Amino acid sequence: MPLQGARCIVQRGDALYPQSLETVRYPPEKLYIIGSTEALVPGLAVIGARKATPYGRACARRFARIAAEKGICIISGGAKGCDSEAHRAALDVGGKTAVFLGGGCDKIYPAEHFQLFQEIIDSGGALVSEHSWDVSPRPAFFRQRNRLIAGLADALLIVEAGLPSGTFGTADDALDYGKEVYVVPGAITSSTSRGSNRLLLQGATPIVDEGSFEDALFNTFSMLKRPDEMVLDDEEDDPIIAAIRAEPLSIDQLVGIARSVCGSVDPSSYLMEHIALGEAGGKIARQPDGRWGPTLQNKTVRK
Q: How far is residue 277 from each of residues 160, 218, 221, 273, 297, measured CA to CA in Å?
């Protein structure tokens, strides 16, 4: 029984053809799609080991969920392990996700992910292949499709990768295309993290907690946030900037203020986002003693 959903073939040059795929090696002349073409947008690619550890699976879920909650499309390959955990995390929070297959969309692999793929289609996501509907998957096709995952994404998150690993090829593609590469470190004794740790040694951005991940997302995706996380232009409506403009404050003091006003958002992440925007707007600056205070041109002189 084939997957159910809208089907289309998008040719290179069509308005619906993702512009970011024009920059990959050998841009596909056709894309065979089941689902919504609206899911074929630049987003976050999440990849990792097929034989992932519980740690790897949990990290894939955790970070994919955070990104999906912010409206970022999760892109991956639908494989066992980290890929499928990332797709499921996006579905759990009502986010969009796109799957690039290593064969035709009617020859899905792995077969046990049929229901997952159907849920992705039903939720507004998409299954995508550069191969016609009934082409069987082959090892070489999976390596080739990785360039499309890296090409569509604005950033690539590698959760768990051993040595040797096809993940390195995807990371190389992402770097060649000018994309950001984030890596979750693992134990140096874990064979499934040797590749991940090697990429960190080579200069990838380390993702060590939710705060570092949200900082990375902010730097890559700019103002892509939920409405309740948006910082208003008027500093009087921003409790963090207002507090800093009143008097210089340490990070510990600011975390306490953030905790009292951030609601369900992580206070450290909330604080860093507000500080980044206040600093970018020239309203606040870090002082020599490490505290945050008003910039000289914005400082109010008290009588």
A: 32, 10, 14, 6, 17
Confidence (pTM): 0.74
**Contact between residue 182 and residue 219 where contact means Cβ atoms under 8 Å apart:** no
DSSP symbols for 143-183: HHHHHHHHHH-SEEEE----SS-THHHHHHHHHHTT-EEEE
Backbone angles phi, psi at 76, to 5 degrees: -160, -170
Closest CA to 96 of 120, 62, 77: 120
In this predicted model, what pLDDT tens digit does every residue of 83-121 receive, in sequence order? 999 999 999 999 999 999 999 999 999 999 999 999 999
List Cβ neighbours of 159 (8 Å cut-off, separation of 6 or more): 46, 47, 48, 49, 52, 56, 59, 60, 63, 82, 86, 184, 196
Residue pair 151/20 in contact by the 8 Å Cβ criterion:
yes
Nearest to 197 by CA among 56, 81, 66, 46: 56
What is the average pLDDT across 251-257? Answer: 88
Q: What angle do CA 103, 104, 107 make, to 5 degrees?
A: 90
What does the pLDDT look like over 134-187, one tens digit per residue?
999 999 999 999 999 999 999 999 999 888 777 888 988 999 999 999 999 998
Rounded to 5°, the CA angle 181-158-65 comes to 100
In the chain, the largest separation of any two C-alpha atoms, in whole Å, equals 78
Q: Domain ranges for the chain, please list them.
A: 7-221, 228-298
Between CA 271 and CA 20 the distance in angstroms is: 33
Which CATH number among 1.10.287, 2.60.40, 1.10.10, 1.10.150 corresponds to the domain 228-298?
A: 1.10.10
Cα–Cα distance list, 107 to 121, 224, 239 (Å)? 16, 35, 54
Domain spanning 7-221: CATH 3.40.50.450: yes
